Amino acid sequence: MSNLDMGRRRLLKMFGLSATATTAAILQADPVLAATLGYDERTGVSPATYRAPTGLARSTAAKRTALDWIGANEGAITKLSDDIWQHAELSLREWKSSLATAALLEANGFTVTWGAAGFPTAFVATYGTEGPVIGFNAEYDALPGLSQKKGVATHDPLVYHYDAYGPTYGAGHGDAHNTLGAGGTAAAIAVAQAIRAHGLKATVKLFGSAGEEQLVGKAYAAKEGVYDGLDAFLDWHPFNITVPFWNTTSALVSATFTFLGASGHGGTPLGNKSGLDGALLMATMSEYLREKNVAPSGRFHYAIINGGGAPNVTPDMCSIWFFVREGSPARAQVLYEKIVDCAKAAAQASQTRLVHKFHSATWNLLANKAGAELLDDNMRQIGAPRFTEADHALAKAVQKSLGKPEVGMATELTPLAPPAAAYSGGLATDTADISWQAPTAVLLSAAYPPGLPNHNWGVTATAATNIGHQALLSAARYLAAGAVDLIERPELLDGMKQEFKDRTEGVSWASMIPDGTQPPLYEPPADFLRATGQSWPPKGVTWPVPPVIATEQLGTTGPNLPPVA
Which of 99, 219, 233, 443 could bridge 244 with an S-S bond, Cβ 3.0-4.6 Å? Predict the structure, then answer.
């Protein structure tokens, strides 16, 4: 099987797409999915006959200036990526990573405003004051437990926390957000260089986004209007192939359920009330939903946050964190309510008290066909990421370690193709909420070997090597070239806007986050606040957050009985 064949199969699986169903029922039942998958059916676009257009991308002096800047500054761009990889900061705590990203932007003429939507590590960097406003994205958060030494092809965590009873790994960039942030930043600066050098009338905004791995930052920022006024938004994500797309994604709801009981000795458990029992009962109940209450497009998954410290102490508090995914906000809400009912029943059965905390939610992605086609034409002119023999050797070694075909890195662009006919579930992104505010064009660039999934140590292993470098530099070129085309050829931007208008007709976006919800936050270090000119807490935030404490009484087994002689 070729790299291209593997790429297509992986891409379909990633987006939960099936090529055998029809969207007719979707068009009638769900206007949000109709705006995404249904648009192609209405406009006569068929996966069987589609051919990507050419002649959209043009070579101009301004585009050459943008691309030349990226070529001349590869060292600074890849250093930013590698520094963020080394920091490996978890969501909403990206103190060093956000500062490093903002510093490179400020050094290249951008004005940075910190604290977007109340998130300390979120910012908006702006260059220019007139013309169309083109937005770019930077994310820089790592994932727990995915620490891995760079360039090492067997699982070998860079940070290992010893514990005699339960060792753990440190955080790592298993989604390669170090490359994502550096690539988006480079694209924004390159376009600003073209604007300055050629007197173009346009404004560039780079949005530093907090907590993408928890689907938090952009969802709250979109609700607060941070992305208002954009004419187009260009984004990318590291992946194992290189391709633009206009597929949709899942809508998602994130919430935790904390069960509060009464602690006691594990050897004399009668009357104790276990928070862990509540969490495990909820997990078990939710599993029984899968057969008859979850559509093929639905997903839910969870993690136990604090399950107790020792077997001989009944834990009086335990939290379970759920992600609930479906093909549209309405469908996600239905599935989420079923999960909530499981939590209520589990609390009753375990005789614990339930504290339910909603964290975030986001719509499914509304990508833009015209934008994807423009990126595709630029990508074909620029070419696929170029990997060395050493890169292929590393990729094959990682693939071998993980039991995947040893094919090396993808060396060609995967052809642009329309979304398949039906949605059967997949990933989610908080970029989705931006995509309902402005026309959004998205691409993937190969930052790790084919056959590997996101959120794996193998991704961390390649994200700070030449493999990750080539992915982010290529993505920066693709995005910058597309943006210059939009600025210099208004008819292309008008085409994206018209498609956006056509898709969203009859659909009114509203944030899935209830009014008054306080986002999950962490207090920044004092030196970070000083460096960014922020104060704590942000306006409208209650701090410290009221504690969640178990105050439950011990249970009873009934009246004491006389001893048996």
Answer: 443
Residue 338 tokens read as 């079923």
What is the value of pTM for the model shown?
A: 0.95
Of 147, 142, 81, the closest CA to residue 464 belongs to 81
Is cis: bond before 419, omega within 30 of 0? no
Count of beta carbons in the 10 Å neighbourhood of residue 9 = 12
Question: What is the C-alpha separation between 556 and 560, in angstroms, rounded?
Answer: 10
Say if residue 307 is exposed, middle or buried (CB neighbours under 10 Å; 0-12, 13-18, 19+): middle
Instruction: Work out the burial of residue 28: count CB atoms within 10 Å of its CB; fewer than 13 is exposed, 13-18 middle, 19 or more buried.
Output: exposed
Phi, psi of 132 (to 5 degrees): -60, 150
Q: Rounded to an integer, what distance in angstroms lies between the CA atom of residue 260 and that of residue 347?
A: 9
| Of 129, 131, 232, the residue nearest 187 (C-alpha) | 232
Which pair of structure tokens corresponds to residue 122? 């979120």
The CA distance from 280 to 304, in Å, is 9
Q: Contact 445/240 with Cβ under 8 angstroms?
A: no
pLDDT tens for each residue of 360-380: 999 999 999 999 999 999 999
Torsion (CA) 265, 270, 275, 276 in degrees, nearest 10: 80
Q: Where are the alpha helices (DSSP H) in 88-199?
A: 95-107, 177-198
